[in-house]
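Journal club side-thread
Mid-discussion, someone asked how the predicted structure for our own chain would compare to the paper's figures. Pasting it here so we can look after the session.
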Amino acid sequence: METFFVAEGTFSEISWLWYAIAVLVAFGAGAIWYTLLFGKQWVKVVNYECLCGANISKGEKCTCKNRFPWEMLFQLIGTALIGLMYFILTPISVWLSVIVCIAFAGWTKSMLKFQIASWNRYITLASIDVGYFIVVSAIFVLFSYL
């Protein structure tokens, strides 16, 4: 019997070990993506300011005291929820997962254009962010088959 939201057995069919590993792999990929691979470009196009007001994009030093990285915790939770979505969708249809990936990436980055006037800055940021989202989506789709 199916419920309105999720087919019965969907959650029981998820390999929670592979799901947890996929979340860690995706989160680790983000750490590499936004530091080693594209960190400098991302900080520049985002126009990143730390809590004390220093503009990191312009080379200013952040003098804020260390604090618990709530942003990273929220990012981990968001990554886990996106992964759960793929672990539910992919067994139903891999094409459904692909459509959701394209739709979500396009929708979020089209909204970003309203905030960034410069096309060069927008294209750079959208390319970095969409590229990462596609990598994460692929990680979750692949791990959902394990």
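Post-session note: The chain has a mean pLDDT of 87.
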